[in-house]
Amino acid sequence: MNNDNEHKEGQEKISKEKSLNTSINYRQVFDDISSKYTSRRRITNKVVSIVAIVFVIGAIIPLGSILLEVIKNGIAVISIQFLTQPPGSIGSGSGGIGPAIQGTLITVGLASLIGAPIGILSGIYLSEYAPAGSAKGGRERAISFFANTIRLFNDVLTGLPSIVIGIVGYVTIVLAINSFSVWAGAFALSIIMIPIISRVTEETLKLVPNSLREAGYSLGISKSKITLFIVLKNAKDGVLTGVILAISRIAGETAPLIMTILGTSLFFTSLTGPVDALPLRIWRLASQPYESAHAFGWGAALVLILMILILSASLRIIARGRGIKVRTETI
Amino acid sequence: MTSGSVHINTDIKEKVSSFLVGDRKRRKIGDKLFHGLVIGTAAYTLLIIVIVVVSVGLGSAKIFSYEGFIGFVTGTNWNAVEGRESYGALPYIIGTLMSSGIALLIGVPMSIGIAFFLSEMAPSRLSSPLSFVIELLAAVPSIIYGLWALFVFRFLIKDWIETPLYNTLGPYIPFFNQAPFGLDVFTAGIVLAIMIIPIVSSISRDVMRAVPNTQREAAYSLGATRWETARIAVFPYGKSGLLGASILGFGRAVGETMLVTLIIGNAIGPAAIPTTLFSQSQTLSSLIANEFNEASSDLQLSALIGLGAVLLLLTMIINVVARLMVSKMVKVSPGDRE
Predict the structure, then answer these.
(1) Average pLDDT, whole number, for chain B?
(2) Between A228 and B323, where is the model more confident?
(3) Which helix (H) or strand (E) element contains residue B79?
(4) CA-CA distance, A249 to A83, in Å (whole number)?
(5) Distance between CA atoms of A165 and A111, rounded to whole angstroms?
(6) Which residue in A has a C-alpha nearest to residue B227's C-alpha?
């Protein structure tokens, strides 16, 4: 600001001197115009800043409203009976969401059992066995081509609409065993998990300093054991972050479950039969034309959002505490 | 410490070291096995892609042989009555593009404004809790956005935005000339915008933070204001990343199912083509979700999977275009990170 003023004063001096010799004061005209533009520029800057702040507030208001409504309407129906009972007959306003909670835990648990090991191992491959970088020989070039293809396909998988993944679960498993089943749901959800976990694992393993691997080699330890007991052990917080991220992502997925686990009002019976899930139950309740069903929908939403927010808040606390950077693209 | 425990300790140490180092032959076999295992799991990704393409292709084969690919994509009827069956995806393609387009028009400028605030204006004491809040917004499942939109937001938007727009512009511009109901393509677009803002704004923020400070200093030294600095130094440097973030958001909006299913009005057939901003419509994914469990014939099921195939193609085209545009821009301005 000070510099600006000094500069202007200097310019004014020069223009005054020049004005003695010329009939039209060009300098003065120029200064007038430029100060006009400067004030306009300042105003533009102010306006843009205010608009940006309004946008931030505009993004936070919906979050506040969603949380407020879910808590306000959800707490009203939550009780032990609501959390443990199967749903009553449609429109009766009795019963609960017990099977949905149980079904979500079973389906998400099974999906994690399938998806987490595959995702972690494939991340290990990409980081430890096929490092990105300059490839010299034919064999190395082939490896790096293979690895890059996998990275590309991981990105493609992350971008697939979840309903398409549901169709895959339906065609491959539901049609094959001729029944909507937990297996189909878990398989579909694991497809969503794997690219997320693989990517986070690859990126955290790359952060492990090479000196640790070299120390292992110098002791004569084999590569597989270095990878598992030194590299992976050092990066376990980051890998855990990836797994939690993937779980919190799939716990709220609804679309793939419609065509795989179907949803039912009964408790779990077998892995080859249909089961309920919280997001599915919320959808069915919201679609019914009864006030009592809507109230139950809010209750189920509160349970689901609590599960996910606790997961994702703990994830961010772990990540922040250990200085792990979670790539936002994978969320 | 007694001598016994020391003995045990050395025993354990020996066991651990013999486990880690082992004898040479077994070490080699173990290494090979592990190498094979990780290659196998990595290749599983390729297998999944093949499974996706094959199963969507197989599932939709029936409808494509019945209607023909062009016929299916350009048809507007959706009739499951036996003997008069006719399926076309065009209204839902339009509905998808229109609702996602509205989401993009509203969501991207807001996201870039938020990213501008977080990376250029806010002190770190404010920007890191704010980022946390906005990332939490990304963790809320879409079904909950849908529930909120259906029972809360739709009345607000109907009373405060749609009705005034209809009253003022409706008589003159046909695009606004339909009495708003709250469950329409406009509401769906706005809620989709709210849903994609967290992801687009946090990537944009990361992109803008990755712009080196020397760029900003150069602009400031020329006397540029904060906004001018962003415009001449930050945005051009990170434009490919910002574009990538926007297209990613568009892809999210195109594929979103549950939220749209609850609030777009679920029109069927030619009626689903949105002729005004406040028309009821339907997207590819919402029709699949609505009818999948009630499909009365194999042909209808196949038609629904055909919609999935169209959706798959659409998202793949969006991704490829995004990649091409981003790589083109990287060539124009070397030094870009993304």
Answers:
(1) 86
(2) A228
(3) strand B78-79
(4) 22
(5) 13
(6) A45
Q: Distance (Å) from the C-alpha of residue A119 to the closest C-alpha of chain B?
A: 8
Place of tokens 């407020």: A68
> For residue A107, how far is the Cα from the chain centroid?
19
Distance from the A139 Cα atom to the nearest Cα atom in chain B, whole angstroms:
15
A55-94 burial, b for 16+ CB within 10 Å, e for fewer?
bbebbeebbeebbebbeebbeebbeeebeeebbeeeeeee
Segments making up each domain of chain B, as ranges: 3-67, 86-332
Interface test with A, best of B144, B206, B305 (most A CBs within 10 A): B144
% residues pLDDT > 90 (chain B)? 48
pTM higher than 0.80: yes
ipTM summary value: 0.86
Topology of domain B86-332, CATH: MetI-like fold (1.10.3720)
Which segment of A303-312, B11-20, B40-49, B252-261 scores lowest on mean pLDDT?
A: B11-20
Place of tokens 């993937």: A246
CA distance B277 to chain A (A): 22
Does A150 contact B46 at a Cβ distance shorter than 8 Å?
yes
pLDDT score recorded for residue B91:
94
Alpha carbon of B49 to those of A149, A152, A260, B36: distances in Å?
Answer: 11, 11, 19, 20
Q: Given CB atoms, is B49 within the 8 Å cutoff of chain A?
A: yes
**Chain centre distance of CA B121:** 28
DSSP code at position A133? S
CB pair distance less than 8 Å for A125 and B42: yes
- Judging contacts by C-beta atoms under 8 Å, the chain B residues touching residue A286 are 146-147, 150-151, 262
Most confident of A21-30, A165-174, A243-252, B319-328: A165-174
| Dihedral in degrees, nearest 10, Cα atoms B99, B104, B110, B113 | 180
* Residues on chain A touching B45 (C-beta within 8 angstroms): 122, 150, 153-154, 157, 194-195, 198
pLDDT attached to residue A315: 76
Which candidate from A69, A157, A308 shows the least CB-CB separation from B139? A308
Taking the Cβ of residue B74 and every Cβ of chain A, the question of whether any pair is shorter than 8 Å is answered with no
**pLDDT on residue A326:** 58
End-to-end CA distance of chain B: 58
Contact B228, A45 (CB under 8 A): yes
pLDDT value at A70 more than 60: yes
CB distance B58–A156 less than 8 Å? no
Q: Which of residues 273-292 of A touch B (CB under 8 A)?
A: 279, 282-283, 286-287
